[in-house]
Each structure stands twice: as structure tokens, then as C-alpha cells.
């Protein structure tokens, strides 16, 4: 099943948003625990940026899975693992993405020090998996656009 024009445009918009958020997360590389703990606006900003990245990636996965005629999985973690199953992402990327889904819950429910450890890891290396998904999804979108020609 090929992706229709409207869904291609929707996917392209989500990918554009993801590009911006991935650029923004790099701006937090110098953030330390003290600033995270004591600067509530900065804390909300970095947490929201990570949330946006994960949610955008989930939207991308859902669009691709639907158009690959794969039933939408029960868990967000499985969204990313299914991308591996349909040949969109590498094993490393799929499992890396799946690992970071839980960070959405940690942001909402865990203490500052627990959140901080996960956030710092995401800023330092976790975002790379989302950059890989971005590249995979852009390649998928281009293939779908060519198919329509």
C-alpha cells in the first residue's frame, strides 16, 4: 500500500518539526544538574523538547506502520520494534528508540534526580536514535513520493 498525498504531506510536516526539535536538544548539551534543578523554565523547556521528539517519532512510526499495513501495536515501545520488522529501521535504531519511550513516563512521574540522569543521557546520546529514524523516514517518504510519479 502506498502512502497518499495528504499523508505524505502530514509525514513531511512531522519530519520538519522533528528536525527543529533535534536541533534544539543539542542546545542543552551544557545543561548541568544544578541548572536543571533550580531553573524551572529551563527544566520545562528541556523536558518538553524531549517529549516532542519522542511523540513526533511515535507519529512517524504510526503513519509508516499503517501504510505498511501493520496493525498498530499495543505499546509505544512496539511501534519502534515494528519498524525493524518492516525493514524501515536497523536493529540498533529500533531498540534505541524503544528504550527512550519510557522516558516520557519518567518525565511525568519520577523525582528530579532520576529524571535528570535519563535526560542527560538522552541529550548526550539518546537523540541519535531519533536522528536515525528521521533519516529512515525521509528515505521512506522519498520512495513513496517517487512511487506516485
Question: Could you explain the architecture of this structure?
Answer:
The protein is an all-alpha fold. The protein has one domain (5-148): Four Helix Bundle (Hemerythrin (Met), subunit A) (Up-down Bundle). The protein is 82% helix and 0% strand. The protein has 6 helices and no strands. Helix 1 (5-26) packs antiparallel against helix 6, helix 4 (76-85) runs antiparallel to helix 5 and helix 5 (91-109) packs across helix 6 (112-148). The longest helix is centred in the C-terminal third of the chain and has 37 residues, at 112-148. It is elongated. The protein starts with a helix and ends with a helix. 30% of the residues are buried. The model has no long low-confidence stretch (mean pLDDT 92).
List keywords for this structure.
mainly alpha; 6 helices; 0% strand; Four Helix Bundle (Hemerythrin (Met), subunit A); 149 residues; elongated
Our measurement of the CA-to-CA distance between the termini, rounded to an integer number of angstroms, reads 15 Å
Please indicate the count of domains.
Answer: 1
The radius of gyration is 16 Å
The CATH homologous superfamily: bsu32300-like
Question: Are there runs of 5+ residues with pLDDT below 50, and where?
Answer: none
**Average predicted local confidence, pLDDT:** 92
In total, the number of strands is 0
- Helix % is over 70%
Instruction: State the CATH class.
Output: Mainly Alpha
Task: Tell me the fraction of residues in β-strands, as a range.
Answer: under 5%
**How many helical stretches?**
6
Q: Describe the largest sheet.
A: none
- What characteristic shape results from the CA principal axes? elongated
SSE order, one letter for each helix or strand: HHHHHH
| CATH level 3 topology | Four Helix Bundle (Hemerythrin (Met), subunit A)
- The CATH architecture would be Up-down Bundle
Secondary structure class reads mainly alpha
Amino acid at each position: 500500500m502506498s502512502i497518499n498525498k495528504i499523508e505524505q504531506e502530514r509525514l513531511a510536516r512531522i519530519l520538519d518539526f522533528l528536525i527543529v526539535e533535534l536541533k534544539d536538544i543539542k542546545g542543552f548539551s551544557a545543561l548541568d544538574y544544578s541548572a536543571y534543578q533550580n531553573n524551572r523554565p529551563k527544566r520545562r523547556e528541556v523536558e518538553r523538547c524531549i517529549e516532542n521528539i519522542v511523540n513526533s517519532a511515535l507519529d512517524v512510526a504510526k503513519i509508516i506502520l499503517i501504510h505498511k499495513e501493520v496493525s498498530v501495536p499495543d505499546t509505544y515501545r512496539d511501534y519502534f520494534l515494528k519498524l525493524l520488522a518492516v525493514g524501515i529501521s536497523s536493529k540498533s535504531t529500533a531498540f534505541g528508540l524503544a528504550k527512550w519511550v519510557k522516558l516520557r513516563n519518567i518525565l511525568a512521574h519520577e523525582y528530579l534526580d532520576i529524571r535528570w540522569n535519563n535526560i542527560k543521557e538522552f541529550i548526550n546520546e539518546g537523540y541519535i536514535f531519533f536522528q536515525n529514524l528521521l533519516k529512515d523516514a525521509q528515505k521512506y517518504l522519498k520512495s513513496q513520493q517517487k512511487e506516485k510519479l
